[in-house]
Amino acid sequence: MGAATVTVALAALLAVALLGSLAFGAEVLPVARVVDAVLQDRPGPVSTIVWDLRMPRSLLAAIVGAGLALAGTGVQTLVRNPLADPYLLGVSSGASVGATAVITTGVLGALGTWALFTGALLGALVAGVLVGAIAVAQGGITPIRLILTGTVLGSAFSATASFLVFRAGDPAAAQSVLFWLLGSLSGAQWDRVAVPAVTVGLVLVLFLASSGWLDALNAGPDTAAALGVPVTAARAALFAVCATAVGVLVAVSGAVGFVGLVVPHLARLLVGSRHRVLVPVSALAGALFLVVVDVAARIAVRPTEMPLSVVTGLIGAPVFLVLMGRRRYRTAGSTA
């Protein structure tokens, strides 16, 4: 199957999944009424449910899924490790400290509904800067140094978040922190869509524009240098882009696991490792995956919702194992 065929098929499936996400939820709506509400936007309860409640959530699911898949693709290229995922950089753990501080201490309360987003984003950005600065101070941004620094600082940030929950001693706050850490889009609103949409759009454009350099970095530093790629600067830029994107996405959705790990593998199996085709296919597959996961999270245990990472883990783990067992793929210049 060619890359163009895969791209078109994924785009069509994403459109169907988005339509289904508008129809399914605590109350199931007929698809015909959903289509009518989307096309004509006439006042009424169906239009309110579709436009005010489900549309921003569905779009945010697609954006977060696409962004995490792109970040996973970038991080795996950056550290030349097919088992890397976006959270390897320690950014999500930093975001958890910021979000936990907001929930347990009430800091940034003056920002109202933006307090949690702002706290998580600040925590993520501080974590990204710390990981990058420590890696640079210890000799430069290399794959092994990023992995070790991100893992160690991520553990320290997780311990800090746990300490904040322990110190608060509030069961309700602990439950809120746990639900946020496992990922949720229940707070999606129209005013939360623009920032992650612009961020993911910029990452997509940057990755496509630099696909040749990403291919070279994936082949190894010596090959990249021989092809004229400024390896150190390219690695630093790729780290900054991935860390920023993950920070923004985690701030709006919590830490959603498995998307950044599983989707890039699936995309490589479908279209290979050339980033010119891998990047758009990863974005579409990630968007499709998280839209489907969000629908499953909404309807599996109605009227409550399951955290997204519970669903992604239940779906992603067996899918990942099957993919590894059925096919061989190349990444980072090696065969697995």
Detailed description of the structure:
- This protein is mainly alpha-helical and 336 residues long.
- Helix content is 75%, strand content 1%.
- It has 14 helices and 2 strands, in the order ααααααααααααααββ.
- It has a two-stranded antiparallel sheet.
- Helix 3 runs parallel beside helix 8.
- The protein is globular, with a radius of gyration of 20 Å.
- The C terminus is likely disordered.
List the helices and strands and how they pair.
Elements: H1 3-23, H2 31-40, H3 45-79, H4 91-105, H5 115-137, H6 143-168, H7 171-181, H8 194-209, H9 211-219, H10 221-226, H11 231-253, H12 259-271, H13 275-299, H14 308-326, E1 330-331, E2 334-335
Antiparallel strand pairs: 1-2
Helix pairs in contact: 1-3, 1-13, 2-3, 3-8, 3-11, 3-12, 3-13, 4-5, 4-6, 4-7, 4-11, 5-6, 5-11, 8-11, 8-13, 12-13, 12-14, 13-14
Q: Strands of the largest sheet, in order across it?
A: 1-2
Low-confidence runs: 331-336
Q: Which structural class fits the helix and strand makeup?
A: mainly alpha
> CA-to-CA gap between the ends?
22 Å
Order of helices and strands: HHHHHHHHHHHHHHEE
Number of strand elements: 2
Distinct helical segment count: 14
Largest sheet: 2 strands, antiparallel
Q: What is the gyration radius calculated from CA atoms?
A: 20 Å
Strand residue percentage: under 5%
Give the helix level as a range of percent: over 70%
Oligomer: single chain
Mean pLDDT over the full residue set: 87
Shape: globular
